[in-house]
Design goal:
The complex is a heterodimer of chains A (532) and B (183). Chain A has 532 residues and is α+β, with helices and mostly antiparallel strands. In chain A, 39% of the residues lie in helices and 17% in strands. The chains are: A alpha+beta (532), B alpha/beta (183).
Chain lengths: 532, 183
């Protein structure tokens, strides 16, 4: 029998004395290393052929007032086994500097800039340490996630808002096109700065975080049981994905075994959320090529799903469905058959529409070879979700790290290798059919039983948990650490938009500006979930 | 071509196929706002500004334009620029970074104008109240005429509130009542 490859033992053999200790938390191996060893070890995990770890999350924790130190955590997802591997390091006392891993692992770019803004910890050797979250008019020395920073402080502006420092290209015939923060449609605010020479885009500089509401700090004012409502309001279109990821993190900490019926219902609602967003996006993408007919039909179908949600749960966006320990809403047999019949109508309707869309030559012409995101670029940026799957990155948490009822429901993961707008539309279309199939499958399997379980343990301050959910956009990650009296000490939220936004800057290069809305819609990223 | 026509005939007219707004939730619009809205008669052009919402309110605003709600049939049009707008619809608590752009948009919108605060966050900051990233509800920065509560308000509720807003007495009816002696 071939020996099982153990990544932690492998690292211990290689880096032996450089590793302080190895621990395991809820099944996730954590390698604790001194600060100066982070770069060689993370670089090895990233580049080694057997490990090929993608940086999934990088965040800091301020352990004050209990301990005088900051912690930095690096979460990797290994390519073959899809297992998680964590690296952690301490910055004791007044230490504010750490070594940047961005020059070797590109995916760390925004994370390290975020840590600098939110904690004041500076990544030495980072190639681009401009402000990310705090815009230029924010006062100096404000680092909101310090434990001693009052959550309700009133910030004093330093200078008039609106000044932007971007990366500019100068030269004859080179123009800049600034767009936003307020756009022409009903969209969220964000600033895009295109550099063009003639028609094609040479460079795109994103400036986001206009909507930064201080969500992570607001979580720290909540108890573990009270955070669900806030999680639901991080990104309205992913209400259920976020609340599910949050609830799962609390359930891991409290060692709650969610009843089977509740896990199945969670899967149903998660698929409903995927459905209404995917159908809406297919229409939105068609609309950006001025194909109004497909848009009208898709928005009509999306409305049907939203009205269905409203009838079943009393909320069009599935608010109040999840609660810690299970679900708050049950579906009767009649409701379930109504759901399945309605979805059957929607699927037939959508299939007819697909045949109309698929033969429209002018539409396909706009879709094909537009906004190509190459597999290598996607891998370097750690791109997740349907954008990743359309670029050949075969990752889906529903299959790789099953949560809710997906351990008993095999998911057929859609994928493509072209990485253009058409590939992203195709992945969406396959996922729409797959979601409807899954709900039909659940109708057959749905067990009876309770909807909610109670907590088993009361963990100590400092205990933490990680949870992951494959929302309709991609992986939603939550890191949750408890403080005193069941208060949340730190809640790191990562919406898939945060990793996919930087990748869009690569996908637009060489395309013309009129194609940007199309590419942007095909990524369909959240501004609110990114800005927090 | 025939497929498209067949699909259109098969689908028929879907406008108005939505459940009515929950009863018991009547929207009271201040008479001053109705008076302001009187100027725009049966046509109102809206510009939507997001100052920090969770994007659920945006999705409901987008839903207003779909074939089911089709607010164009009510004379409500969504403009792409504040310069073309009669009314601003503001969603979300006003964040530290969006305060400036919101005031700019307000200045750019030609007078007379209405400001509609859509959703709980725009009215009282909702769940984000007090955060360092939020500078306050919309009426702290610009004068608000109409408030539409909900998290998010359903499209049917938004339509109801907008209808209520434009129920104001028109100059013609006032003139008509004056001369017919029928108040």
């Amino acid at each position: 029998m071939e020996p099982v490859f153990n990544p932690v033992e492998h690292l211990q053999c290689l880096f032996g004395p450089a590793i302080n200790r190895v621990s395991t938390n809820h099944g996730i191996p954590v390698v604790h290393v001194p600060t100066n060893q982070v770069l060689p070890i993370t670089r090895y995990i990233h580049a080694n052929e057997e490990l090929r770890g993608t940086l999934s999350l990088l965040w800091a924790v301020d352990r004050r007032p209990r301990e005088e130190r900051y912690e930095l955590w690096y979460l990797f997802t290994l390519a073959e086994s899809k297992d998680w591997l964590m690296v952690s390091t301490d910055l004791p006392g007044e230490e504010r500097l750490f070594e940047s891993i961005t020059p070797k692992i590109h995916a760390a770019n925004w994370y390290e800039r975020e840590i600098r803004d939110m904690f004041g910890l500076i990544a030495q050797g980072h190639p681009d340490l401009r402000r990310l979250v705090r815009h230029n008019h924010w006062p100096k020395g404000v680092h909101p996630l310090h434990t001693n920073f009052p959550w309700n402080s009133i910030l004093q502006w330093r200078q008039p808002p609106g000044s932007v420092d971007g990366h500019f290209i100068h030269g004859e015939g080179v123009f800049e096109v600034p767009v936003g923060p307020i756009h022409a449609g009903i969209i969220e605010p964000g600033h895009f700065r295109f550099t063009v020479a003639g028609e094609p885009i040479m460079h795109l500089d994103l400036q986001h975080f206009w909507k930064h509401r201080g969500v992570e700090k607001l979580f720290e004012q909540q108890t573990l049981a009270g955070g669900v409502a806030l999680a639901e309001r991080i990104s309205g279109d992913t209400t259920l994905g976020h609340s599910l990821a949050y609830c799962q993190a609390v359930e891991t900490l409290w060692e709650i075994h969610v009843p089977r019926r509740a896990r199945y219902l969670r899967s149903v609602f998660l698929e409903l959320e995927r459905l209404h967003n995917h159908i809406g996006d297919v229409g939105g993408i068609c609309n950006d090529t001025a194909y109004a007919l497909a848009h009208a039909h898709c928005s009509r179908l999306k409305e049907r799903v939203l009205q269905l949600n409203d009838r079943l749960t009393g909320s069009r966006f599935l608010r109040g469905v999840n609660c810690v320990g299970g679900v708050g809403i049950d579906l009767s047999t009649d409701q379930f058959s109504e759901l399945v019949t309605e979805l059957e109508h929607i699927e037939n309707d959508f299939t007819e529409l697909e045949q109309i869309i698929a033969v429209n030559a002018s539409l396909i012409d706009r879709f094909e070879s537009t906004g190509i995101l190459k597999k290598q670029t996607a891998w370097d940026h750690g791109v997740v979700g349907l954008v990743g799957r359309a670029s050949g990155i075969d990752r889906d948490l529903r299959r790789d790290r099953p949560f809710a009822a997906y351990d008993e429901l095999p998911v057929r993961v859609a994928g493509s290798s072209h990485g253009d707008v058409r590939a992203r539309v195709q992945v969406r279309v396959s996922e729409i059919h797959e979601s409807i199939r899954l709900i039909r499958e659940i109708q057959r399997l749905l067990p009876d039983g309770p909807l909610k379980s109670d907590r088993q343990v009361a963990p100590d301050a400092g205990a933490w948990a990680l949870s992951a959910v494959e929302g309709w956009r991609g992986e939603i990650l939550y890191f949750l650490m408890i403080g005193e009296h069941e208060q949340i000490h730190r809640c790191k939220v990562r919406d898939p938009s945060f990793v996919n936004w930087p990748a869009i800057q690569m996908a637009v290069i060489g395309n013309i500006i009129p194609d940007f809305p199309l590419i942007n819609k095909s990524f369909s990223l959240s501004y609110a979930g990114n800005d927090l | 071509m025939f497929k498209i026509l067949k699909k259109s005939f098969k689908t028929g007219i879907v406008t108005g196929q939505y459940p009515p707004a929950p009863a018991g939730q009547k929207f009271s619009v201040a008479p001053t706002a109705q008076k302001k809205a009187e100027l725009f008669r049966k046509s109102l052009t809206i510009r939507e500004v997001d100052t920090g919402s969770c994007n659920a309110c945006e999705m409901e605003m987008n839903a207003l334009a779909n074939p089911v709600y089709d607010i164009e049939r009510l004379g409500i049009h969504i403009a792409a620029s504040p310069r073309h707008a009669d009314a601003l619809v503001v969603t979300g608590p006003v964040t530290v970074s969006m305060e400036g752009p919101l005031k700019d948009v307000f200045k750019t919108t030609p007078n007379p104008k209405l400001v509609i605060a859509l959703g709980d966050c725009a009215i009282n900051c909702g769940i984000f109240k007090g955060s360092y990233g939020v500078t306050g509800p919309v009426d702290q920065h610009i004068p608000v005429d109409v408030r539409i509560p909900g998290c998010p308000p359903r499209p049917s509720e938004i339509i109801e509130a907008l209808t209520e807003l434009r129920k104001g007495v028109t100059t013609f009816t006032r003139w008509f009542r004056k001369f017919s002696g029928n108040p």
